[in-house]
Amino acid sequence: MNERHILWGMPVSLYTGKVRSYLLTQGIPFEERLAGPDFIQNVVPNVGRWIIPVLETPSGDLVQDGAAIIDGFEAEAPRATPDMPVARAVSALFELFGGEGLLRAAMHYRWSFDDQNLDFIRDEFTLPMQGVMPPDQIAPFFESSSGRMRKAGAMFGVSAETAPLVEESYGEFLSLFSAHLAETPFLLGDRPSRGDYGLIAPLYAHLGRDPAPAHLMKRTAPRVFRWTERMNRPVVGGGDGDFRADVPETLKALMRFIADDYLPELGAHVAFANDWLAKHPDIEPGTNGQDDPTARGIGMATFDWRGTQLTTAVMPYRFWLLQKLQAAAGDDADVRALFAETGLEAMLDLKTARPVERKNHLEVWG
Fold this sequence. Notes:
Blueprint: E1 5-9, H1 14-25, E2 30-34, H2 37-42, H3 44-47, E3 54-56, E4 62-64, H4 66-76, H5 85-101, H6 103-111, H7 114-125, H8 135-155, H9 163-181, H10 194-205, H11 211-220, H12 222-230, H13 249-261, H14 263-279, E5 299-305, E6 308-314, H15 316-329, H16 333-341, E7 356-359, E8 362-365
Parallel strand pairs: 1-2
Antiparallel strand pairs: 1-3, 3-4, 5-6, 7-8
Helix pairs in contact: 1-4, 1-10, 5-10, 5-15, 6-8, 9-12, 9-13, 11-12
């Protein structure tokens, strides 16, 4: 039996980067394999759709989704989950925001700079098929896959019209995160938390590797770039330091940014979902309520963002992460006080009429 875990993914993949970082920093033995023909033949039929990352355990079990993979390890031995309620809730907040709230910047900086990015991205996207697929089929394969991703970018609000606002937003985030990293090597102290793994997802594969945003990060936020390097190697000393108990002003500033930049979108999505659920009262528990059981979105919601109207895809997966944040916060008064101080108290109370669960690698309604 293989004593190592197998991580099925791709270097270019945002969510593969989250799991890879966790395994590397925590010193968990693993082998990374490209999601190519072997993945399609042996893994996809068992997962039910082509989606990465997937972790194959030494016993042969498959776990899909970055947060779910980390959940499994944390249940065995908490490494990245603080035991203090405030730190635990803040960590969960940044796991949600990193993987979902920074998607607009990640997609914009990958797909809106072809003159700088395209050669690199083309090679990265076709990596699993190089040497397997006939050379004359590589270009059409890339055009098809990249076309789908460009359409996905539009569903997250990326367009020529929103580009200046996306760049403004991301610039503010880099400045705030840089200021925080001047005080601490990781989000909550001397070792990475789940919040760090949420942030590394977009800040590595898209924003830290693709040529245009990587240059931007190195030039304007070198501390953030150095953090991406720390997040991809074993933590010095094993990461045994405590998570900090206090919440410094630099971290509160980042939380206020999330309140301004992401909370309106999340609130609009919850409102849309509740309206959608009211119109679909007969959804069978354990299903997504749609003809396609693998569909991830339920519609599009419009909200105010930086002085403009933005319309983005509503995905129940985000509600599952939001539920995890609310579970981490519990009824702790200090958590609520901190979230109120930073403009995020509403996030503790946003709930869909039915909970989101994960069953057989899919998001379903409870």
